[in-house]
Design goal:
CATH class of the largest domain: Mainly Alpha
CATH topology of the largest domain: Cytochrome Bc1 Complex, Chain D, domain 2
Structural class: mainly alpha
Order of helices and strands: HHHHHHH
Number of domains: 2
Strand content: under 5%
Distance between the termini: 72 Å
Number of strands: 0
Radius of gyration: 27 Å
CATH architecture of the largest domain: Orthogonal Bundle
Shape: elongated
């Protein structure tokens, strides 16, 4: 006859093993749902994309982000993402998609980012319009950002869209 005191550790180990197997199965199921489906273009080369789309027409390879855009992502996330999206979605402030094209230029953007209040106070017509269009919510000043860092942020925003 088996002593119940000897059986207890064996049952506990068995429960632990069953729980581990169940967790592993759940992990496999989640991974299957999160993995991207293989496209016909990928299947041709064993998973590597081919230069043609399913229509047979050549396609351009996705452009890798520049080093400035990569650096700009971190600066954006640390300074801008609380109020702005890199896309078109408005958060507290406007989405930044196309910001280089819709503003008076990079020099203007540097002034705006460093101290939007001063630009508005100077009577700059576009600054006043942006301020009014966004509920007169004052943008935080980022006087410590360098020209290079601002360029990196803008490169990141461009590469995101």
């Amino acid at each position: 006859m088996i002593n119940p005191n000897q059986l207890r550790p064996l049952v506990s180990a068995l429960y632990g093993l069953v729980a581990t197997v169940i967790l592993m199965l759940m992990l496999v199921v989640v991974m299957v749902f999160l993995m991207p489906a293989e496209t016909p273009a990928m299947a041709d080369a064993g998973g590597a994309p081919t230069p043609t789309a399913t229509s047979g027409a050549p396609t351009a390879a996705p452009k890798a982000p520049s080093a400035d855009a990569v650096a700009g992502k971190e600066i954006f996330n640390n300074n801008c993402a609380a109020c702005h999206s890199a896309g078109a979605d408005k958060l507290v402030g406007p989405g930044l998609k196309g910001v280089r094209q819709r503003t008076p230029g990079e020099a203007w953007l540097q002034k705006w980012i460093r101290n939007s209040s001063a630009l508005i106070a100077s009577g700059d017509a576009y600054a006043v319009k942006v301020f009014n269009d966004n509920g007169q919510v004052q943008m935080t000043s980022f006087a410590s950002l360098t020209d290079q860092q601002i360029k990196q942020i803008l490169d990141y925003v461009d590469s995101s869209n």
